[in-house]
Structure formats: structure tokens, C-alpha cells
Amino acid sequence: MPTKARKTWAQQLQQNHSVTIAMSCAIVGLSRCAYYYQPKLPDDSVIVSVLNAITDRHLRWGFPKCFNRIKKLGYKWNHKRVYRVYCELKLNLRVKRKKCIPPHEHQKSYWFLINKVNAGQWIL
Fold it and tell me: What is the pTM of this model?
């Protein structure tokens, strides 16, 4: 059962049956620290605005250059958090691969024709 559901059960037990928090948590199978935990929702609005400002000015910059600029501006955000927001904004650039030359057939080497001259004639 998810923690959120167990927390609501524990709260209902307290309201309906006037049970203590410790008792209701024990009945439901929830730790008291999980009962009191308030999840922090990440506020990424500042990261979004900074990333948009950087990418508006430098269109062809990828994530590493943008993140280095953010560090130089003095923000102390984790690169994983910034990359998550970067991907949510769909700022990922298409990676252009270098075109490689297709392999050619190796020609048979004629080692016996290389600079072997006997009295002005090729030796075969």
C-alpha cells in the first residue's frame, strides 16, 4: 500500500476513534517519521527562466555549455536537476554524426613489382 493511503487511514483512525498518532501509525503499519513527512515539491521556475535566457541567446549550445554558464553565473544546482529541466523543455539538440567514408575493397598487392629492376627490366 502506498504511504499516502496509509497516512490518510491513520488520520481517519485518529478522527473517528480518538487514537494517538503513535497507535494509529502502528495499526496502519506506518512509521511516525513517514506520517510527519511533508514532501517538498521542486520549484524549477528559476531554472526554467535561466535556461530559456541562455538558449535564446546561444541557439546552438548544448547542455554542457549551458550548465557551465549556469555555474559561472553563480547558481549551485545539481547537474542532474538542471538536465531534467533541460529535457522537459525539449532543448536537446540533435546530435550530428560525422559522415564516414564507406570502406573500399582492398586491392591485391603486387609486392614483386615494387622497385625491383634488373638491368632495366621488371622482375616478375
Answer: 0.53
User: In which element (H, E) is residue 117 found?
Assistant: strand 117-118
Chain center to CA of 26: 39
Q: What is the pLDDT of residues 77-98, one digit of tens each?
A: 999 999 999 999 999 877 788 8
Q: 44 near 77, Cβ under 8 Å? A: no
C-alpha cell at 51: 535556461
Number of neighbours of residue 35 by Cβ within 10 angstroms? 17
Domain-by-domain residue ranges, the chain? 3-36, 45-88
Residue 47, class by beta-carbon neighbours within 10 Å (0-12 exposed, 13-18 middle, 19+ buried)?
Answer: buried
Question: DSSP characters for 25-38?
Answer: HHHHT--HHHHH--
